[in-house]
């Protein structure tokens, strides 16, 4: 059986940046820009039905409008003088392909003499420099029979919107209208709130929110933004805060050396804990980082490396080292609140293969991940399909069904739905 695990060095592997971090700074377009008096569009009467306080707005040519997917997108426009301005798309214009109809205010930054009427510009899509969360608005007249919902204040264009009703597992795709609303599918007769909403950006970020009621034409404040976790290492991965009790155990050093249920070796770090079976998720909890707040308001950051089969949901069994940062051992049990946060890690994800891994079978775990790992898929060179690898309860992903040799591509998906693609070129046992 697998006794020894070997850490595979990634020195020879180029670790791809997460796909979702791919720059939006895509191709440059060249076109003609005109200008318009943007006040009506800024009041929400443009094709995108997006109101704007900021006059730096633009109408996009029909040929570039992508059935309103460009709405809310930010573009950087450079004029003949070399000046640039960033504008957001709130309208469609009757321009030729790659042409823009700029607000007069933004046109002036590129060409102060508006009597020119139209100028040559180049432009490209950029990340919107915005603050706060994505908000939502239902179309006027929305009800459980018929509704449309739009996302407002998103950093990247929205590629997809889905919803899921309580007590169901299926996500339902909403249909994008050309006025920048996502509509309830007519194939379903009624959809009632509350429901979960899931937005995917064009570059792969996912935000999930809860909608409590279908309220016509009112701003509904959301709780997330595309790509937020990338800006702030301590941000919460999962919005839930759990309440429970902390217990403690002696001998955490043994677990931290790799004998815990997660088989994670923390390299001597004893800020660790064991997760209740109810939230263990077939070892998906392994390696996740948790911020635990004790009864006195003190907090400690721990990593989950073990399973606490006897703990009720909400409880965490902490190492004595972690427990004593929050309370006294004499107390035995203390009240805690906790939430999953991003781990602060140096460097890239690593793959730790079981010794003896070969094309006949192999098993590996992911080490040094910033967010919990949801799934792993691999794609052997020359094949078109990704193969999901099943997660084992001991926090390894196993391939033992087919003959799969190196090299293969690997796709790691985090619980935040961030995706990282990598390549495995050899099994560690074949390393010198
Ligand atoms: C720009 O917008 C104005 C106002 O909507 C419109 O009259 C004009 O025709 C537009 N220009 C182009 C080139 O579509
Ligand atoms: C905490 O972990 C220790 C060591 O595994 C175990 O003996 C103890 O029962 C656990 N506490 C609870 C409440 O399950």
Q: How helical, in percent, are the residues?
A: under 10%
Radius of gyration: 26 Å
Shape verdict:
globular
Largest sheet: 6 strands, mixed, barrel
What is the number of helices? 5
> Within the largest sheet, what's the order of strands?
2-6-3-5-4-7
Please count the beta strands (DSSP E, at least 2 residues each): 29
Bound molecule types: 2-acetamido-2-deoxy-beta-D-glucopyranose
Structural class: mainly beta
How far is the N terminus from the C terminus? 22 Å
Strand content: 35-45%
- Whole-number average pLDDT? 87
Query: Poorly predicted ranges (pLDDT <50, ≥5 residues)?
Result: 1-23, 229-235
Protein architecture, described:
The protein is mainly beta and 432 residues long. The chain has five helices and 29 strands. It has helices at residues 39-42, 104-110, 228-231, 252-256, 320-323, and strands at 5-8, 29-36, 57-61, 74-78, 84-93, 100-103, 119-126, 135-138, 148-152, 158-165, 172-173, 175-176, 182-183, 195-201, 206-211, 219-221, 242-249, 272-276, 289-293, 299-308, 316-319, 334-341, 350-354, 362-367, 373-380, 387-388, 397-399, 408-414, 419-424. The strands form six sheets. It has a six-stranded mixed beta barrel with strand order 2-6-3-5-4-7. It has a six-stranded mixed barrel with strand order 17-21-18-20-19-22. A five-stranded antiparallel sheet has the order 12-13-9-8-16, with no helix packed on it. The radius of gyration is 26 Å and the shape is globular. The two termini are 22 Å apart. Mean pLDDT is 87; it is low at 1-23 and 229-235. The site of one 2-acetamido-2-deoxy-beta-D-glucopyranose has 7 residues, from strand 17.
């Amino acid at each position: 059986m697998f006794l020894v695990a070997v850490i595979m060095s990634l020195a020879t592997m180029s670790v791809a940046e997460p796909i979702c971090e791919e720059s939006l700074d895509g191709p440059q377009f060249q076109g003609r820009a005109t200008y318009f008096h943007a006040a009506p569009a800024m009041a929400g009467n443009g094709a995108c039905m997006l109101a704007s306080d900021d006059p730096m707005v633009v109408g996009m040519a029909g040929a570039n409008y992508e059935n309103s997917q460009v709405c809310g997108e930010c573009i950087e426009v450079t004029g003949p003088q070399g000046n640039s301005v960033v504008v957001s798309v709130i309208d469609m214009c009757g321009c030729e392909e790659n042409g823009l109809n700029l607000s007069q205010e933004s046109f002036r930054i590129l060409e102060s003499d508006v009597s020119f009427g139209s100028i040559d510009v180049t432009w490209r899509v950029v990340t919107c420099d915005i603050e706060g969360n994505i908000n939502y608005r239902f179309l006027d007249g929305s009800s459980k029979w018929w509704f449309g919902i739009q996302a407002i204040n998103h950093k990247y264009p929205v590629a997809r919107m889905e919803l899921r009703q309580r007590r169901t597992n299926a996500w339902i795709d909403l249909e994008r209208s050309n006025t920048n609303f996502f509509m309830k599918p007519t194939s379903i007769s009624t959809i009632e709130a509350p429901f979960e909403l899931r937005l995917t950006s064009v570059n792969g970020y996912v935000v999930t929110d809860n909608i409590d009621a279908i309220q016509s034409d009112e701003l509904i404040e959301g709780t997330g933004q595309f790509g937020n976790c990338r800006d702030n290492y301590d941000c919460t991965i999962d919005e839930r805060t759990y309440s429970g009790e902390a217990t403690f155990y002696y001998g955490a050093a043994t677990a931290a050396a790799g004998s815990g249920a997660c088989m994670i070796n923390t390299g001597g770090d004893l800020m660790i804990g064991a997760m209740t079976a109810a939230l263990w998720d077939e070892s998906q909890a392994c390696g996740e980082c948790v911020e635990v707040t004790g009864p006195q308001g003190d907090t400690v950051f721990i990593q989950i490396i073990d399973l606490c089969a006897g703990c009720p949901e909400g409880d965490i069994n902490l190492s004595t080292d972690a427990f004593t940062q929050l309370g006294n051992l004499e107390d035995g049990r203390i009240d805690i609140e906790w939430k999953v946060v991003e781990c602060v890690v140096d460097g890239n994800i690593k793959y730790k293969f079981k010794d003896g891994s070969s094309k006949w079978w192999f098993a590996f775990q992911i080490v040094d991940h910033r967010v919990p790992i949801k799934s792993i898929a691999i794609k052997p060179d020359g094949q078109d399909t990704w193969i999901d690898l099943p997660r084992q309860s001991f926090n390894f992903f196993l391939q033992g069904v087919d003959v799969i040799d190196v090299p293969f591509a690997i796709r790691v998906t985090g619980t935040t739905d961030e995706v990282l693609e990598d390549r495995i070129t050899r099994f560690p046992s074949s390393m010198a």
